[in-house]
Amino acid sequence: MITANRRTEELDEELTKAVSRHRVIGNFYRNSSLLLMVIAVFCSVGATIAGIGYGNGHLAGSLSLVPPLLAFAAVNLKLDARAKWYRRKEHSLAALLRRLRFEMPDPASPDQIALISRERSVLEIDLLEEFEAKCTLGWGNIVGHRD
Predict the structure, then answer these.
(1) Measured in whole angstroms, how far is the alpha carbon of residue 44 from the centre of its chain?
(2) Is 3 left (phi over 0), alpha (psi -120 to 50) or beta?
(3) b/e sequence 4-38, b meaning 16+ C-beta within 10 Å
(4) Which residues have a Cβ under 8 Å from the Cβ of 50 and sit 6 or more positions away?
(5) Which pTM value belongs to this model?
(6) Is residue 28 helix, strand or coil?
(7) On the chain, which terminus has fewer CB atoms closer than 10 Å, C or N?
(8) What is the DSSP letter of 135?
(9) What is residue 139's predicted lDDT score, i.e. its pLDDT?
(10) What is the DSSP letter of 104?
(11) In the prediction, which pLDDT does 147 show?
(12) Angle at 16 between CA 83 and CA 123, to 5 degrees
């Protein structure tokens, strides 16, 4: 039989890993979105310089095509929405972790540990529904799939 103390340690470890994992993933999406925008700006500046400064229409035309393609990719991959979702999940899990560590009596009862675990389950189901609504690519509409 698992003791309440062991269950608390396991839940603490799971939440700590999940918070860290979601922080990394959220930062990846945020940085990817930022990188695409920086590249788009530099390509716009490069196209302007190539077109005005050097009169090289082929280079200017090629560079001017990159920003709308990057913007299209960023919008359709929903990088900002995904970054926000992962940050929201990170902060929600961190709040549960703080409750487990600092708001529960020491040692916590099995019922108190179960309460935190149930709240995590509800949180994950709610956030999954939000992810599916806001962060999926929505390619089902392309192939005719309707929910």
Answers:
(1) 28
(2) beta
(3) eeebbeebeeebeebbeebbebbeebbebbeebbe
(4) 56, 59, 60, 63
(5) 0.81
(6) helix
(7) N
(8) T
(9) 62
(10) S
(11) 47
(12) 60
